[in-house]
From TrEMBL:
PANTHER family assigned to the protein according to its UniProt record, in alphabetical order: 8-AMINO-7-OXONONANOATE SYNTHASE, CLASS II AMINOTRANSFERASE/8-AMINO-7-OXONONANOATE SYNTHASE
Cofactor: pyridoxal 5'-phosphate
Similarity section: Belongs to the class-II pyridoxal-phosphate-dependent aminotransferase family. BioF subfamily.
SUPFAM superfamilies tied to this protein: PLP-dependent transferases (SSF53383)
PROSITE patterns for this protein: AA_TRANSFER_CLASS_2
Domain Aminotransferase class I/classII large per the UniProt entry, residue ranges: 29-372
Source organism of this protein record: Salinimicrobium gaetbulicola
Pfam family, one: Aminotran_1_2
MF-aspect GO terms: transaminase activity
Protein name: Aminotransferase class I/II-fold pyridoxal phosphate-dependent enzyme
Pathway per the UniProt entry: Lipid metabolism
InterPro entries for this protein: Aminotrans_II_pyridoxalP_BS (IPR001917), Aminotransferase_I/II_large (IPR004839), AON_synthase_class-II (IPR050087), PyrdxlP-dep_Trfase (IPR015424), PyrdxlP-dep_Trfase_major (IPR015421), PyrdxlP-dep_Trfase_small (IPR015422)
């Protein structure tokens, strides 16, 4: 085996020196405050059994996708699932991708064209940034949830690039901060300046709204949104993602989105699980969503009671971030919480800016009030003692 390249070895050493070295760890039998399985559907037996039933009823007993969707991989369940998704999310069309990362990569690398402009929230997910970097459009970030900054940037760019097509990109729930934008105001700005609004709903589906359709549907602004990304590996407990939009957008992505065209399709079981999860969300899922939303309210009230609010980034989703500056410090507090039985993960720089390192608490429908209270008791002791 050849020697490891010196530049790469130095990068690893630097990460270790910065206390930012990442390692894969096995699952521990701790109270879950770290997974994106907000409704517990990844472990739901009803969905598991219904996914198998869907496969049998459609006489699809294959282990793999067998090829890309444009070759041999577009099995019948794709059509069923995409029809279900477009009606559930009130969209003209839906196109399933292998993951949310693939969907954002495929969309942003192919849709915005040369001389187009993309304005994206500065806290947008890495998959959005990576997709933009692969494309040919010019891209500028705007301050987080700062719509005045966005509008000023649009006005400036329109003076010099009169004919440019402008895309505005945000997330319905930001994955590291757990806060939400004012989507109604973003929709108004998009309409005012003739822009195309794109919303990543990865962390709002299954969490926001009575039936978990996400923030766009909850606010009734779907007619003002050009494209939505919904993922199935978080609250739906499955795998994959979809781009929601017009029929023409779907046709365009099928023809030009490289992360869709040049990859093997999802295996039938994954698509059957998506179908089963959406069916569950429409029925028994309503109760799980209510449990989650009650836990969110309880967590907020406990933060206030314990005078912990100033340490947390304000939000009202399933994600709560407690800022603990310094990689070494936040790792130690997380370790101590894990010793007490709570699976709370530290988020280190450079994933978040230096000085904004944090503990990320993910709430679930299956967390008990006792678990919520106990973890905050330990946290207060660790942080304020």
């Amino acid at each position: 085996m050849k020697k490891f390249p010196l530049k790469l070895d130095k990068s690893l050493q630097f990460r270790k020196e910065q206390k930012a070295f990442r390692e894969l760890s096995g699952q521990k039998n701790l109270v879950d405050f770290s997974s994106n399985d907000y409704l517990g559907l990844a472990k739901n037996n009803q969905i598991f059994e219904n996914a198998h039933r869907i496969l049998v009823e459609n006489d699809i007993l294959k282990n793999g996708g067998t090829g890309s969707r444009l070759l041999s991989g577009n099995h019948a369940l794709y059509g069923l699932a995409e029809e279900k998704l477009k009606y559930f999310f009130n969209s003209e069309a839906a196109l399933i991708y292998n993951s949310g990362y693939d969907a954002n990569l495929g969309f942003f690398s192919s849709v915005p064209q040369r001389n187009d402009i993309v304005f994206y929230d500065e806290l947008s997910h890495a998959s959005i940034r990576d997709g933009i970097n692969l494309g040919k459009a010019k891209a500028y970030k705007f301050f987080h949830n700062d719509h005045e900054d966005l509008e000023q940037k649009i006005i400036r760019i329109k003076k010099t690039s009169i004919d440019a097509i402008i895309y505005i990109v945000t997330e319905a729930v930001f994955s590291m901060d757990g806060d939400m934008p004012d989507l109604r105001q973003l929709a108004e700005i998009s309409e005012k300046y003739g822009c195309f609004l794109v919303v990543d709903e990865a962390h709002s589906v299954g969490v926001i709204g009575e039936t978990g359709k996400g923030l766009v549907e909850e606010l009734g602004v779907s007619d003002h949104v050009f494209a939505r990304l919904v993922t199935f590996g978080k609250a739906l407990g499955a795998h994959g993602a979809a781009i929601l939009g017009s029929r023409k957008l779907k046709d365009y992505l099928i023809n030009f989105s490289r992360s869709l065209i040049y990859t093997t399709s999802l295996p039938p079981h994954s698509v059957a699980t998506i179908l089963a999860a959406i069916q569950f969300l429409e029925t028994d899922g309503v109760l799980e969503i209510l449990k989650l939303q009650n836990n969110i309210q309880h967590f907020n009230s406990e933060l206030e009671k314990r005078d912990l609010e100033p340490l947390f980034i304000k939000g009202n989703s399933a994600i709560y971030s407690c800022v603990v500056p310094g990689n070494e410090k936040v790792k130690q507090v997380a370790f101590n919480l894990q010793l007490e039985g709570f699976d709370v993960k530290p988020i280190l720089s450079p994933t978040v800016p230096e000085g904004k390192e944090r503990l990320r608490f993910c709430l679930h429908s299956f967390n008990s009030e006792e678990e919520l209270n106990s973890t905050l008791t330990v946290l207060k002791k660790e942080i304020l003692s």
